[in-house]
Amino acid sequence: MNILRIITATVCVGLCTQAFADPQDIDKEIAALAERLAGPIKEHSKTKVAVVDFEDLEGSTEGELGKYIAEQLTVDFVMTKRDFAVLDRANLKKILAEHKLTAKGLVDPDNAKKLGQFAGVDALILGTIIPKGTTSVGLNAKIITTDTAEIIGAARAEFAADTTVHDLISKQVAGNGGADGTSSSTDDKAQVVKSLGDMRVELQSLKIVNGRQYSLTMTVANQSRRTVWVALNSDSGLYIHGRVTDAQESEFEPNPGSVSGISIGTRLVYMYQAPTRFTNATELAPNSSTTATLKFSSPDGKSASSGTCRLQLEFLVGHEQSNGSVGDVATPNLVCSLEAN
Question: What are the φ and ψ backbone dihedral angles of 86, each rounded to 5 degrees?
Answer without folding.
Answer: -125, 130
